[in-house]
Amino acid sequence: MDDHDVGGDSARLRYLDHEGAIVKPLPGALANRDLLIRLYRAMTLTRTFDAKIIALQRTGQIGTYASTLGQEAIGVGLGSAMRREDLLLPAYRDTAAQLLRGVTLCEQLLYWGGDERGSDFAGPREDFPICVPVGSQYCHAVGVATAFQLRHQPRVAVVTGGDGSTSKGDFYEALNLAGAWRLPVVFVINNNGWAISVPLERQSGTTTLADKAKAGGFPGVRVDGNDVIAVHAVVGEALDRARAGDGPTLVEALSYRLGDHTTADDAGRYRDPDEVSRHWAEDPLVRLRNYLVTGHGWRKDDEESLLEECSATIEAAVAEYQAIPPAAPEAMFEHLYETLPLALVAQRDDLARRLRR
Amino acid sequence: MSEMTLVEAVNLALARALADDPEVVIFGEDVGVNGGVFRATDGLQARFGAERVFDTPLAETLIAGMAVGMAAQGLRPVAEIQFMGFIYSTIDHLLNHAARLRNRTRGRLSCPLVLRAPYGGGIHAPEHHSESTEALFAHIPGLRVVIPSSPARAYGLLLAAIRDPDPVVFLEPKRIYRAVREEVDDDGTALPLDHVFTVRDGSDVTLLGWGAMLQVALTAANQLAEEGIEAEVLDVATLKPFDTATLLESVARTGRCVIVHEAAQTGGFGAEIAALLAEHGLLTLLAPVRRVTGYDTVMPLYRLEDHYLPSTAAVVAAIRETLEYA
Ligand SMILES: Cc1ncc(C[n+]2csc(CCOP(=O)(O)OP(=O)(O)O)c2C)c(N)n1
Ligand SMILES: [Mg+2]
Question: What is the ipTM of this complex?
Answer without folding.
Answer: 0.96
